[in-house]
Amino acid sequence: MKSQRGFPLLQTLLMGLVAVSILGGAFLFLNQSSSSQTLSVPGMSKYIDADFGFSFWYPSRWKVSNASADLRDIAALTGYISDNGSTITSVDSRTVSKTLEIQAGKYVWYVQEVHSPSGLVSTYGYSGTHLHFDSTSKQWMNNDDSQSDSANQFHPSHIVATTIGGLPVLLGAIVPLSPSVFIIVGVDNGGDPLGRRIQILPLVKTISSTDPSVVTPVSADEQIKTIQAEKDAYAGQ
Question: Measured between alpha carbons, how far is 211 from 216 in angstroms, rounded to an integer?
Fold first, then answer.
């Protein structure tokens, strides 16, 4: 009789142990999954703008702040100097939602949040560059601003690089978050008498969207490599 009464008890204990093991394993899995999404690179900080929906990484010694409300045309101060050698000038100030100012030693960076409902970013001063997303071909298009007679002739935009969030970098300094929302990066070289161009891509490549439906990030290892590359690129600033 003892053995018959003991068997259900033993069975219950075994089932309890199995359940605890399964739950423990699930908790460990969730923990590992959560931790794998948390990136950390010593000496680097992450800026997140949840309202506009994007983030980027920068050296922790730099200071990021909101620029004054009237600072909309940053090209008037510096122009955008892109890594592919072209100079991108002003966007329509009416489309600028906010401008961030980043103090980086003698250099000043600007990150503009641009919302253009028309799906078009226009820049002026260099014959005009018009950028838009073509819903038919599913490509970003821009006109050839090097020739005045081809202002209305659009062709696929050259993708300079891809960010850690899987977003294209267009014209060296523009990252579209959607067909109507853009991040544009500019930098003032501090009046460097040698006119040295500042590398923009290392920072631009760390831009990502905070919208899960938009983000198709590269692997965590690749993200860390990209952030570390930015740290190395700006070591002297």
Answer: 10
Q: Which residues contact 188 (CB under 8 A, 6 or more apart)?
A: 77, 78, 107, 108, 109, 110
User: Would you state the pLDDT for residue 200?
Assistant: 85
Q: Of 44, 40, 37, which is closest to residue 64 (Cα–Cα)? A: 44
Distance separating alpha carbons of residues 17 and 117, to the nearest angstrom: 58
Residue in the structure block whose two tokens are 């008498």: 193
The Cα 77–Cα 59 span in angstroms is 23
- Are the CB atoms for 207 and 183 separated by under 8 Å? yes
Scored b (16 or more CB within 10 A) or e, 211-220 reads eeebbebeee
| Stronger pLDDT, 123 or 213, i.e. the higher one | 213
CA distances from 160 to 9, 157, 200, 203, 219 (A): 67, 9, 12, 14, 20
Write the pLDDT tens digit of every residue in 153-181: 788 888 889 999 999 998 778 899 998 89
CB neighbour list of residue 107: distance below 8 Å, 6 or more residues apart: 187, 188, 189, 190, 198, 237
Handedness of CA 54, 166, 200, 156 (dihedral sign): negative
- The CA distance from 75 to 173, in Å, is 13
Average of pLDDT values for 17-31? 41
The rounded mean pLDDT for the chain is 73
The angle formed by the CA atoms of residues 166, 167 and 170, to the nearest 5 degrees, is 140
pLDDT tens column, 146-159: 544 445 678 888 88
